[in-house]
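Submission sheet (multi-component)
Chains listed below:
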Amino acid sequence: MKRILGVFLLLVALPLQAHNLVPGEKQTQPILLQGGTLHTVSQGTLANTDLLMIDGRIAAMGKNLDVPAGTQVLNVSGQHVYPGLVALDTTLGMIELEQARPTNDLREVGNVTPEVLAHHAFNADSDIIPTLRYMGITHAQVVPQGRLVNGRSSLMQLDGWHWADALEAGPVALHISWPRVGLNSAWWERRSPAEQRKANAKAYEQLVEVFETAHAYHEGRLAGTQQQVDQRWEAMRALFQGEMKLYVHANDRRQLEQAIEFNRAYGFDLTFVGARDSWMLAETLAAESIPVVYGHAYGLPSRVDEAYDTAFTAPAVLAAAGVEFAIAYPGYWDSRNLAFAAGHAVAFGLPYQDALRAITLTPARLMGVEDTLGSLEVGKHATVIVSAGDVLNQLTQNIGYMFIEGRALDLSNRQLQLYEKYKQRPDL
Amino acid sequence: MKRRSAWLGLSAVAAAGVSVLALADQTTPARGLHEKNPSFVALTNATVVTEPGKSLEHATLVVKDGIIQAINSNNRAPEGARVIDATGYTIYPGFIDPYSNYAVEQAGTPAPRSRGQRPQYSNAREGGNGSNAAIHAERNWFDTVKVQNRDAKGYIDLGFTAVQTARLDGIFRGRATTVSLADKRPNDVIYQAYARHFASFDKGSSKQQYPSSLMGSIALIRQTLSDAAWYKEAQGKQSMQGPVEFNAALDALARVQTEGFVFEASDEHNLLRAARVFSEFSVPLTVVGSGFEYTRLNEVKASGVDLILPLNFPAAPDMQGQFAELDVPLADLRHWERAPGNPAALANAGVRFAFTSHGLEKKSDFWANVRKAVEHGLSPTRALAALTTVPAEIAGVADQAGRLQTGYRADFVVSRGDLFADGEIVSVWLQGQESRLQEMHPASFAGDYSLTFAGQELTLTIENEGRMSGSLSQGDTRIRLQGVRTEDSVLYFHADLSSIGIAGVHRFRLQPESLTGFAGRAQNAASELITFTATRPEPPAADAPSKATAGSPEYVSELTWPNLGFGMRQQPEQANLHIRRATIWTADDQGILTDTDIIVRHGLIHRIGKNLSTPRGYQVIDAAGMHITPGFIDEHSHIAISQGVNEGTEPVTAEVRIGDVVNPDDIHIYRSLAGGTTVAHLLHGSANPIGGQGQAIKLRWGQDAEGLKFKEVPWTIKMALGENVKQSNWGDMNTIRYPQTRMGVAALIRDYFQSAREYGQAQEAYAALSRTERRRTAPPRTDYRMQTLLEILQGKRHTHVHSYVASEVLALMDVVEELGFRIHTFTHILEGYKVADEMRAHGANASTFADWWAFKFEAYDAVPQNACQLMEKGVLTSINSDSNDLQRRLNTEAAKSVRYCGMSEYEALKMITLYPAMQMEVEEHVGSITVGKHADFVLWNAPPLSAYAQVQQTWIEGRKYFDRQADLARRAEVANERQLLIEKVLSQGSEAKRGNRNGYRAEQPTWQCEDNHDVWRWTEFVEMEGAH
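Outcome: structure written.
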């Protein structure tokens, strides 16, 4: 009991201290989450079940587990235990304030910057990060922005001293913003349809040329004929070696189709990001085993004649067709709404278990860390959250505990502290 | 023999037609000899259409000295007149284009302001001009008339003989002039020096910042028309601030109530907006339309304006590529199909209109489109009126042009056949002189000829089916002709005659001698000439010319309100309802009522109770298992606004009104209904300390702008503080407008309200004057900007203040308390939690975001517990969207206060229903399910704040505006209609490609608070990242 109290103190007392939170300490003794509802993701939901964490791993799950001596026991009966949520396609830690340029490290100069690594700009002390943890997110993919070939992303755990400490996996993928297709009809667009098509074709040609060049470079390096190192093409070699994924940011159906065609020649490990129209191609994506990081769970219809809930129902369509997909909430401060975005998809037809998987196990798989993250399984990292109620619903989500590899985290944040501060202001 | 003489007559006319300046000039001394060319001409035996619906057969039109001298119904020409046989021809009055830029100064196209240039806030003052560079009311465009032959030809080719013209630049464009297209001195071509005033909403070449938005343009028009009336009244009087200034622009507008305006509107909504603002001052209006009038026909008719219609029907959207239709809205496909029916729809509705060639990308499409309009149901008589009598009136020349009548100008069009069917214009007469477009009696060479050539009997066959071709044959030997063509009634070809025993290639010419006889000559390579004759039987008389009649088109598209995929086929009926056994979240003191009934009667909540019996004739909704909430109310919205949400130019623009620019076509109205929202408070943006007037709307999808307005809501205005108003994120060039600091913001607000108070005092002082003093004293000028601020001081208009940080909020409350009024509602108010006590003491409300932060420095201390803390401290708080996305899901936004700080669900619901209603001072009517209030409610399939809740139905005043089941059915219908139209486009081939390329509406952007670009100067569009 004392120990439980101890952990509570750890979790609750710290918020009253400086807002610059201290990362959690390495797990030194077993912790038992006792009697909660375990949402394992991989093996269904286990009511009234214990979960034991030892040395940063899930050591056991079951009813009335025997625990080693010295175990901290946390009674979580009536509460819900989930794997940590994984936010894909974010710019967390790369920007602090949108309109303060010094804080913005999103986009490098030029259309072709495969050489940049997002984690190099990741600020582990960003005040934004704890506000995502507060909402159950333990990991975030950080992604460089751009216009064509943007750079490489990594997966960060959200409890690091600095980026190297926070780096969970990476670089994971090369990110491409697929060239525009079709026509823009916004009021400020004054280019004729012909001019727009020409510009679209030119951008596509540039992309083709980039890949041809990178490929030739790679072959030249293998053959020893390319002596000098070009940072850009060097950065892309892992693609040709099958060691890095290709993440294509594309929304329009025609972009998706074009990218699939394009990739036939290369056979890269392709994933679509954003993928607004992916529901139109669900059968194809399932047949070709192309995963989707769906970024429009709350999206407005992109065309005036589309049904109001087109973007809301897309996850359900993808699930029904058997497409492997994650749900993302692209952004930085706003990515904290990830769980609610998944809940919204449930309101529009996505089975609950699929929604949960789309923000835990599938993103872990897409990041190549499914062996350690994404579900509650014995042997995986003890990266676990405990919520008073259903984590996907605003009305019930309330994260009481978060562990990353067994480290108990401080769930406080700048916002909570400001709130606490002004609650203490005496009435006028 | 008769036709023969016609040919001879024609060549004489051709010779005469070249002459210029045939009319004696009245004031210019002769240089050299006095030219006295004859001008007495009679066109005989024609069908003379004297005016729409009236024509004379076998009539003779006699013209002399540029005037119609007589129209004789017998077929005789007066002695001495040059006679032109017009047998078989139709003569129409010359056409008048009432909207052009012919022969006067052209509008300049200014280079856009570059990033290195500072904004320009005022205009050059010269000659007593107005205070805005888009006002050119003092210009009289006859001043700049110079005849432009090349431009004239473009009009004459279409049959026009006169145009009303002005420089098409700016908002008040000056006085147009109506001129003949004849090639004469300006003195002779100006038919009406002072025609209509021209105007538009587009500030054109003006580099002055104000106005940058549509509502700014409307406000400028309103102020200017008001000023003109004031200026007129003030003449000969002293103002209370000294002598009345001289103002040429206002002077020129002194008689607009009789002179009237021609107004160029880019769409039917702008037509209605223009009609409204000009009618406030009883100024008659003729509007240059857009072709979209049929989509709001009743409103257009009710506006009472005359129209000038461009005939720029659009080319079909491009459907060549696979899935190209993904970029094509159904609205465009519908418009492609129905735009040619617009004139017919207007005619049937009894709206008077003229045609103009203005706006056509290819002038040569003009007649094809007139005929298309006829095929789509326009009567040829109305079409002719639109080219003659109606534009003559609009252009102020109805007493001299637009019909064929003795004493009128000899301006007319000679056509072969009915112009509204398949006829063609052969000549256009301007002031009694012919401008020949085609030969009047072209020889037709098609047919079989017998000829004797070099002793041989040959048969010549000429065919003319688009391209001319032919052959010479003798028995079975047939020689194909090369190079067959005609020129000046002579046929030319060459042929190799070797196969009939005549050596070499011969070049032939053949010309008619009589109806059946032809004279020919051939030349061989040795230059030997062989003459011959040929005969051809008289060709059969041509078919009787087809007569145009109005067609009756069949459309596969629907017409809905608004005219897009999810538009309404009709307004929903107001139903009397018995809703049974629902869980009712009343949002008032009744709390949550389970298993309870509601009776809705005449659009109001009539009864609430358990087990109520169904009144006779009431529709029953079984709502067992369903939840009902009041419709959501959004205190801060920017949907349904046309052409600019900010008049962010001057620091105070209190005169602009969102109510002037409500856009009823915005699909976000429907999408928000689908999210349970029924009321939106449309606010001006946040680009200046005192922005524009707000407009509350009910989301009555399908209504026009006026029908959307929630009229019970008291007047409001947007104010703003902080980074936006001090232009912090606008780039380095925007550092000259006062204020640039929060200190300046407070000082500026203090200054304007002080001035408004003094403005009110001046009005009171004038009202207190004696009758004699008033006769000597000009009334105070109505200043809409100050008037609006005065309304705030008087408590008639409520302030909604965009605000973030504690310091600025305290400063504003400090300033306005000193001025003697209270801030009504702080909106955004992200640091409200820091100053909640002070806000409560001041009496202010708060309307905030659920969880937005970190998008700019002033949002860095935002917390998602803000609403809880404000409510805890007793500040009435609502959650707003400021976003067309969030407006669809205010429920889950409100639920975040449950998540972050434990607010009760019920209280959270009130933050998007009752409390925003109170903040708009309209809780008497909406905001809760309470007997006596409007029946604005939403049916849900789950507890309304849950992530899993889905709207099933949304009702406003007992009318069902959204029904999920109907929506699901509608999707299939939209898909089907799209498919039919796509097939129609693809099956039409090249005809679908003909027409204007940019003939569709541009998509209105998704406005946000900070969107502050000049809608008239799109090149300066700056996409400002990070909104709100």
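Remark: The domain at 96-108+127-436 of chain B is CATH 3.20.20.140 (TIM Barrel).
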